[in-house]
Amino acid sequence: MSSIEETKDIKANLIIEIIGKPAEHLVATLEDIIKQIDGEKGVKVVNKKIKEPVAFEKQKGFFTTFAEIEIEVEDILILNILMFKYMPAHVEIISPELIILSNNGWNDILNELTRRLHGYDEVARVIQTEKRILENKLRQINESSTSSKQSDDSSTKELIPKKEDKKEKKAPLGVPQDKELGGKD
Question: CA 85, CA 16: separation in Å to the nearest integer?
Fold first, then answer.
């Protein structure tokens, strides 16, 4: 039985994009992200280029920029973890041309992928449940406010006197109609 040596020391390029405001904040944020990446176990930032922020056409007042980051990682699992943790817009493996990975290496990658996907699925389910709860509460508030408004409208209608006949004067609602107040006999 032959022993397969897994590929180590993988070089890759990552592109990380961000959107926000003010423009100066974006460059500082990318610098922080690059420091975090460089601080990850088994990762070395070899080179970085941060582009100047430009106005984001789809959202007035916002800016966008990106960083090109060349990294070296100890193995493919670390690159996989970086993808989920930092969500780059693009990943390109520069070298080696051929990556050898054992079953255990694949198991590690697939288990990490599955673990992350389950985490995202859990968050999505919680958000969907919270959304349903909020929608139901909003619906209840709207229904109670609509029914209150309708009862307010009907009580308001009762308080507002109808147009009177010019020949006949009526006392306002709630006021006794007697001769002293100008009511009818």
Answer: 12
